[in-house]
Write a structure and sequence with these properties.
Layout: H1 2-27, H2 29-38, H3 43-59, H4 66-71, H5 80-104, H6 110-133, H7 146-178, H8 183-212, H9 218-226, H10 228-248, H11 254-299, H12 319-335, H13 337-350, H14 363-380, H15 385-395, H16 415-434, H17 441-455, H18 464-531, H19 543-574, H20 577-599, H21 601-607, H22 613-645, H23 653-679, H24 685-712, H25 717-754
Helix pairs in contact: 1-5, 1-11, 1-12, 1-13, 2-3, 2-11, 2-13, 2-16, 2-17, 3-11, 3-12, 5-6, 5-11, 5-13, 5-18, 6-18, 7-16, 7-17, 8-9, 8-10, 8-11, 8-16, 11-16, 13-18, 14-18, 16-17, 19-20, 19-22, 19-23, 20-22, 22-25, 23-24, 24-25
Protein name: Phosphate transporter
Organism: Psychroflexus salinarum
Subcellular location: Membrane
Length: about 750
């Protein structure tokens, strides 16, 4: 029996390592957003600073895993075997839940997930115990710390609205003071700004440290808490002087200093606070095992007879476990691609200016934006025109505000906003800590970033509906986190209760399968995005570069069109609905690529040199022809899917044979076309045009052949409609590709002259 439970404890620690990996991947958004979005320092430096913060925070963590042991449920009401079931259910659920949110790039709260997982598992086990005793469910309160769970939920909810509101107001005032051209003002008042910011960060680190570091004397902790106003005042004076010296004497960029130190501070707090969310459950299980083992050796008490009242006391976690956990967190921070994917969500939603939007607008976001515009217009009527002009001037940023090296992506927002993000998050978390108010560091940091982007007018009329939809999606996922965590952990604990060790084995296999599948899908998505990465829109300034970019687009689209046409014709011949559904997804991907290219037309044209404006017409026409080809294929794909989905008669063998014949001819032409554009050898364009015209003649013959069939033998209107539709759209597709080649042939001569 003892060996069995040792195996379960080892299993729980292995799960804790997996939980650390997925947890850090999600929570990295807390402290990386501002530094990465503003490009304050190189990425390597950001990761080094954040890694040091994580390592220091983990090492100096208190090691008191209170939430996991007694924050949500009353451990003295549960036996050892029941506690182990709760902890197993929580860890399996947490890994799967966080990995899911990492895969879709949504930052969620590890605090909320672990709290509601513990709550869900404990509630289910409590109800089972009450049922076995024959008692009513009214006795649930003796098992569950309802007051604590309610306090945490309410505190987290309130912190979301406060963080957004405070972020918007402070950023608006900061921009009014500094504007986007803040460099001159920083020479004079940068010391004051640095004093405020760095003293806030210092107090944040000090407050979190006194709450976490166990070797500090209690008198020191009390002195810090009692004299916090003096500490803040002295820090302000000290950092104001230091900041002014850094600016005037050493020519340091004070905002970069603030961003770097703020990143370190939030990383430290993250490790010190959220470590409990990752290893707290496993540590609590291990401590439970030690308590039971001692009792078992002394009196032979069974796991089902040993109450866990020993968890109610304070039990320290060994320092070496904290060091190991910190090291795993740092390694994950450096190598997790999912962490970078989650970070990009916050960065993209808060970026300044336009660009590709990740989230689609919905009815709620449209309504909110519409009424916000109305309120803004109403409020603007109260202000005089000179005042409005003055405010607008502070928020109009010159291009140089976001200038960057050619070929390198520009910062998503400037250093001023990045510093405000970090300082405000530090202040809000510090205040909540000093007043022992519950909050989620993920929610606070994310909503501060969203508030500052709103207050900075980053959400313009062109992007607001997408950004608001994104914020609502993230908030919706937070609500889902609590509901899913509670339900899933409760369900798993129920399965383990009745299924015992067999259920544990099956659940672990399913969890492993789910994580591996998620990793494979994520790897494919990263590869797809890398392969489809477009030319930097700000780099295309000459007709030669336009020609190169257009060649890449043509290869990408025509290869996709050719492959998809082959799949659709084959799947239609087999009357295979499942494969036609996959063809529909491929078609949607092609349409998405076209939409992204057209979204960037404005930027391509704007970046062209004045002498090459004519090239913009070439680029626009190229995209127009590619879009027409994709639209023709969309009709073929969707009508084929609808035909098979409605269980209409199969096309006749002769019809499928004719369609395949046309497809083979086009396949030969398109393969040669792709080779020509990949190698930039365009001398064969005229030959390709001639070959495609022969395909047109063949399609015309097949159309006449089908007309004769209808008059003689054809008796299926649905088949005729589908067959005619496919031939006509294939004809349009071929005509469009001919027009595209003729256009490219015309402009190729001009591009060759530039060489």
């Amino acid at each position: 029996m003892e060996t069995l439970y040792i195996s379960l404890i080892v299993l729980l620690f292995l799960l804790a390592i997996a939980d650390l990996v997925v947890g850090v991947s999600n929570d990295a958004v807390n402290f990386l957003n501002s530094a990465i979005g503003s490009k304050a320092v190189p990425m390597r430096t950001i990761l080094i600073v954040a890694g040091l913060g994580v390592l220091v925070g983990a090492v100096f963590s208190s090691g008191l895993m209170e939430v996991a042991r007694k924050g949500i449920f009353n451990p003295e009401m549960f036996f050892f075997d029941e506690i182990i079931i709760i902890f197993l259910a929580v860890l399996i659920t947490d890994i799967l839940l966080l990995d899911f949110f990492n895969s879709i790039g949504i930052p969620t709260s590890t605090t909320v997930s672990v709290v509601f997982e513990l709550l869900g598992a404990a509630v289910v086990i409590s109800l089972l115990k009450l049922y076995e005793r024959g008692e009513g469910f009214g006795g649930l309160e003796q098992f569950i710390n309802v007051e604590k769970a309610s306090e945490i939920s309410f505190g987290i909810l309130i912190s979301v609205f406060i963080a957004f509101g405070v972020g918007a107001v402070v950023q608006f005032i900061s921009r009014l003071i500094f504007s986007f051209d803040y460099h001159k003002k920083l020479k004079y008042i940068g010391g004051l700004y640095g004093g405020v910011s760095l003293s806030a960060i210092t107090y944040f680190i000090l407050l979190k440290g006194t709450n976490s570091i166990t070797f500090l004397d209690q008198n020191v902790v009390e002195q810090v808490l009692e004299n916090k106003l003096w500490i803040i005042g002295f820090s302000f004076l000290f950092w104001t002087v230091i900041s002014q010296m850094l600016i005037q004497v050493f020519r340091f960029h004070i905002l970069k200093v603030i961003v770097v130190l703020g990143t370190f501070a939030l990383a430290l707090a993250f490790a010190g606070n959220d470590l409990v969310n990752f290893i707290g459950v496993s540590i609590a299980a291990w401590q439970s095992f030690i308590l039971w083992q001692e009792a078992f050796l002394a009196s032979g008490v069974l796991p089902s007879q040993f109450l866990m009242d020993g968890l109610s006391g304070e039990v320290q976690t060994p320092a070496y476990l904290l060091v190991i956990a910190g090291a795993i967190m740092v390694v994950t921070l450096w190598f997790s691609s999912k962490a970078q994917y989650v970070v990009q969500t916050g960065v993209n939603l808060g970026r300044q200016g336009e660009g590709q939007e990740r989230f689609k607008p919905n009815a709620l976001s449209r309504t909110v934006v519409r009424y916000s515009v109305f309120v803004g217009q109403t409020f603007s009527q109260v202000l005089s025109d000179p005042v409005q002009d003055k405010i607008n001037n502070r928020f109009s940023y010159p291009e140089k505000a976001f200038s960057y090296k050619k070929g390198v992506a520009k910062p998503a927002f400037d250093l001023l906003r990045a510093s405000v993000n970090l300082v405000l998050a530090s202040i809000l978390i510090s205040l909540a800590t000093s007043y022992t108010l519950p909050l989620s560091t993920t929610y606070v940091t994310f909503m501060v970033a969203m508030g500052t982007s709103f207050g900075d007018r980053a959400w313009g009329r062109e992007s607001a509906v997408y950004r608001v939809a994104g914020v609502f999606n993230v908030i919706g996922s937070w609500i889902a986190t609590a509901a899913i965590a509670f339900t899933a952990a409760g369900l798993l604990s129920l399965i383990i209760w009745f299924g015992s060790y067999y259920a544990i084995a099956v659940l672990l296999i399913l969890a492993l399968f789910s994580i591996v599948r998620s990793a494979i899908r994520h790897s494919k998505r990263v590869k797809y995005e890398r392969d489809h990465k477009k030319f930097n829109k700000t780099d295309i300034i000459t007709i030669n570069e336009i020609t190169k970019e257009s060649s890449e687009n043509i290869v990408k689209i025509i290869s996709g069109v050719n492959d998809l046409l082959l799949d659709v014709v084959n799947n239609l011949g087999y009357h295979d609905l499942s494969r036609l559904k996959k063809s529909l997804k491929t078609q949607e991907e092609l349409e998405l690529i076209i939409d992204e290219l057209k979204d960037n037309i404005f930027y391509y044209i704007k970046s062209l040199e004045d002498t090459n404006v004519e090239a913009s017409k070439f680029y626009v026409l190229t995209l127009d022809y590619l879009q027409d080809m994709v639209q023709s294929l969309a009709y073929i794909t969707r009508s084929s899917h609808t035909h098979v989905s409605n269980n209409h008669k199969n096309l006749k063998f002769s019809q499928i044979r004719d369609l395949k014949s046309v497809q083979r001819d086009l396949d030969e032409v398109y393969n040669e076309l792709v080779k020509a554009f990949q190698s930039s050898e365009f001398d064969s364009i005229q030959t390709l045009i001639t070959d495609e015209k022969r395909v047109l003649d063949k399609i015309s013959d097949l159309l006449q052949k089908q007309i004769d069939r209808i008059r003689d033998t054809e008796n299926s209107p649905k088949n005729s409609k589908l067959y005619f539709g496919i031939l006509l759209e294939t004809k349009n597709l071929t005509k469009t590709s001919i027009a595209l080649l003729e256009l490219f042939k015309e402009y190729y001569e001009e591009a060759r002259q530039e060489f």
